[in-house]
Amino acid sequence: MITDPGADELSDVLRNDPPEALVVDRVARQTVNDVAVVTLAKPEAYNALSLASWRRLLTVFTELARCADLRAVVLRGAGPKAFAAGADIKEFPRERMTAAAATNYNDAIARALRAVAELPVPVIAAVHGLAVGGGCELITACDVRIASTAARFGIPIGKLGVTLGYTETVSVARLIGPAELKHLLFSGELITAGEAHRIGLVQRLAEPDALVDAVTGLVDQIREQSALTVKAAKVVTGMVGRPLTDADADTLARLTVEAYEGSDLEEGVSAFSERRTPVFGQKKGE
Length: 286
Known about the structure:
alpha/beta
């Protein structure tokens, strides 16, 4: 296993709320070596997501997409009670009470979700407490969800009288299927972490005091893999369930060239033969 000199630092970041100086529109971004931590930072309101927060998430993930050495992102909520407990309803009279305003609001959500989903590196949602409404939708844009056994999930928008946007619908349904999504929407129920795991909304569960260790453990495992392989895995699995386009075919061809004519394959095979840990990312001849 790679010994990461910043492993303890990453754990410390995940165990504490971000400094107020880093919070912009209730979202904070911190970097530990080649890992970014993005925190929803409104703990006094269960990290409710405002329109400004969704727009800030778009900005943060657009910026992260340009970070060449980034290996992973952890998305989490501040405070002990929630990942995010849905929309900031207090701003509805100003931002979401007409069809035109709602269209603008839903567009901001859709853009943020796409930015999270399209980031070239893995995005891990670390979920404790409530992941409700927009919070539940946001975790489905991530690649992997690791949740505390005390977490709760749901999209009880029927109690508000709003509709679920198309992008959010697709994001949730691709994980749990249309029927399970309909049950969540029709019932308005909040489900347990165990039930979320059963239906595929969550990939791994951890006891509350072990959640950070579970998340940092996955980050360590990601960093042991070839970055090229991990990025290709995200791209190719993202194509599942839809017809391939000409652009997809070009992307697959490019990924094949990068893998089979790059240095990581040579290093991986050599390391296997020599029974040692591979050191990926070197240029040929180094």
